[in-house]
Design brief:
Number of helices: 13
Strand order of the largest sheet: 1-2
Shape: globular
Largest sheet: 2 strands, antiparallel
Radius of gyration: 32 Å
Number of domains: 2
Amino acid sequence: MDNQNPESTKSQVLADKTKHGVGRLTKAYNPRTWKEKGLLWTAGLLLLTYAIVVVVLGVIWSFTPGFFDIRENALEKAQNNEAKLVPGYATTATAIRIAETLLHKPGGYLSNDKTPPGIYLDNMPNWEFGVLTELRDTVRALRNDFSRAQTQSVEDIDLKEADPQFSYDSESWMLPSTEGEYKKGVRALYRYLERLADEKDYDGQFFTRADNLAIYLELVRKRLGSYTQRLAASVGQMRLNTDLSGDANARQSTPTPGQRWVQTPWLEIDDVFYESRGYTWALLHMLKAMAIDFQSVLKDKNAQVSLDQVIRELEAANARMWSPVVLSGTGFTLLANHSLVMASYIASANAAISDLVFILRQG
């Protein structure tokens, strides 16, 4: 017994363990239920699913809205009653549609989002701000100019309410939210629209005067000039200071150098591009609406073709973009520069607006 072979003893022990289920060789563990798989595995699966959903939604929400028909939109607001399409109806109905697009497009209003995917999207919020800039300009023009015949005229009660609502902070998340304030502005515009089409004397007016349109276009011209300069700055350039040119007695509060280097930071190039796309998208629809409301004025001034040229340039500026990113080539290189292409269209539209304003101001 004492001389028993150690190897045989070891084999016997292993056999006994196997017989009693100790040290038994088993198949790989293959859990089937969530409970068996464990909390960590389940959490990982949910996190992966959430990430995929967020990415997909981010892509969908980044598509900018398409164009809409101005007349069809006005008829829809008028419940297909053409008798309601009085002067100013198309312009006001278009302003409402633009505001509703901001609030109800896929993903809704994103500029004040604090959760994914809205919080990490930047192109769409910049597009929204461009649209909002034009909407604010239009609502203020409605309040100060289009709805008033003379400087002593009393401002419209609903436009007086709508103007500050759309001027509210564009990034307020709550208490109150931006969407809530803008919805109040939309309701005020709807009330003004209804009063435009009723038959009550002096209740809701829109005056299609050449001087009113010229005042609005003067502001548009400044906006487009600013966007042109910001877009062109995607390529660095040494610019001369022309702030005081044309007036020998002109002065400014703070001295500036005679020339300076101007260039948009690389990370902000796409921000400027999409903001200008948003502004020109909204402006395109607004000018089409004004072409309807100011038809008699434009015909009298022989200015319809000038407005058509502006609209054509804005349509080109909002053509479909096939590249997934905003390219920023420099100079005459092989790589395209989308900002310079946009700047060229906006500059052409701006020049056409200058001609249009000149025509409107002639007697």
